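Re-run with default settings, no changes from the original entry. Doing this only to confirm the output is reproducible before filing.
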Amino acid sequence: SGVAYAVEADGRDTIPFNAVTDADTGSIFWFVDDEAAGVTKPGETLFWRARPGNFVVRAVDSEGRSIAETLRVEWAAR
């Protein structure tokens, strides 16, 4: 939260998403602005293809627990 990521215009930059979970978690479901972004197992990282803008990233585990953080992505300075 509160971090701004800078991405290149070529569209190949990714931002890693990971979460610390309770032991009973089977899967983590990732959403960016309410759109599904992927599913990981605990300890795995999801690499989201970054694009400029302001986003809400939400992680929901298989038990229904969730957390949301804001994310700002901007063009890299040349």
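The first strand starts at residue 4 and ends at 7. The mean pLDDT is 92.
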